[in-house]
């Protein structure tokens, strides 16, 4: 199984797929690794990439959290340790709009840990609107965040459309593509509207 699991919860995450991917690539010799649509990046954390890794996603808050944890995890944990896990604190933090890179990352990790089902969902104004999850019996694993920081040292993180990742892909690289789940138009929109824009079959 994975040497390090992802440090966030993510809807549609692929931690369950890790053993199958490891089996598929076990005999491959590849140079660099690419994962657009990275989400929680469970597959990335499960592999032992020989070269450089390129992870990307359209979610700027997600990429900022990964970047901040990579660059200065102790600073992220400093801000994170100031937050309390209770309903009143949750909604105060959810309504806040920190400006600094590390403060934003701490808010993202807090909301991810204590929200309902770990969803990342925003309204049409781009405001995070997932309710409190009442997860009072859990705490954030600070040690895992420190281990993840080391794992991310040789990773290039980008906020970009998946098609832009083609510029870095070379012969001999490994690419893992896991696009957002697409459902029929007649399905209830609650299952597809997690962001301001939708990822369609045409995309």
Structure keywords:
alpha/beta, 7 helices, 4 strands, globular, four-stranded parallel sheet, 203 residues
Distance between the termini: 32 Å
Residue fraction in strands:
5-15%
Compressed to H and E, one letter per element, the order equals HEHEHHHHHEE
**Helical content, roughly?**
25-40%
| Multimerization state | single chain
User: Based on CA inertia axes, which overall geometry fits?
Assistant: globular
Give unreliable regions as ranges: none
Based on DSSP secondary structure assignment, what is the total number of beta strands? 4
> Order of strands across the widest beta sheet?
3-2-1-4
Radius of gyration: 17 Å
Mean pLDDT: 88
SS class: alpha/beta
- What does the largest sheet look like? 4 strands, parallel
Tell me the number of helical segments per DSSP (H or I, 4 or more residues long): 7
Description:
The protein has helices at about 20-25, 40-45, 60-70, 75-80, 85-95, 100-115, 140-150, and strands spanning about 35, 55, 155-160, 175. By secondary structure, the chain is α/β, with parallel strands linked by helices. Strands 3-2-1-4 form a 4-stranded parallel sheet, with helices on one face. Helix 2 links the parallel strand 1 (about 35) and strand 2 (about 55). Helix 3 (about 60-70) crosses helix 4 (about 75-80). The longest helix is centred in the middle third of the chain and has 14 residues, at about 100-115. The two termini are about 30 Å apart. The mean pLDDT is about 90.
């Amino acid at each position: 199984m994975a040497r390090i699991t992802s440090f966030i919860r993510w809807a549609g995450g692929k931690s369950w797929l890790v053993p199958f991917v490891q089996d598929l690539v076990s005999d491959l010799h590849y140079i660099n690794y690419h994962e657009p649509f990275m989400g929680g990046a469970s597959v990335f954390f499960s592999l032992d990439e020989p070269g450089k890794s390129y992870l990307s996603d359209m979610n700027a808050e997600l990429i900022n959290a990964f970047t901040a944890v990579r660059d200065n995890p102790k600073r992220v944990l400093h801000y994170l340790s100031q937050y309390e896990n209770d309903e009143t604190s949750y909604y105060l933090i959810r309504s806040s709009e920190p400006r600094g890179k590390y403060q934003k990352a701490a808010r993202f990790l807090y909301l991810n840990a204590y929200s309902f089902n770990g969803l990342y969902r925003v309204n049409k104004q781009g405001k995070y609107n997932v309710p409190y999850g009442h997860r009072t019996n859990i705490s954030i694993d600070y040690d895992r965040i420190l281990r993840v920081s080391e794992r991310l040292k040789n990773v290039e993180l980008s906020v970009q459309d998946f098609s832009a990742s083609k510029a870095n892909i070379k012969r001999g690289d490994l690419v893992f593509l896991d696009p957002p789940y697409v459902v029929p138009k007649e399905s209830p929109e609650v299952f597809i509207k997690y962001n301001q824009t939708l990822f369609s079959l045409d995309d």
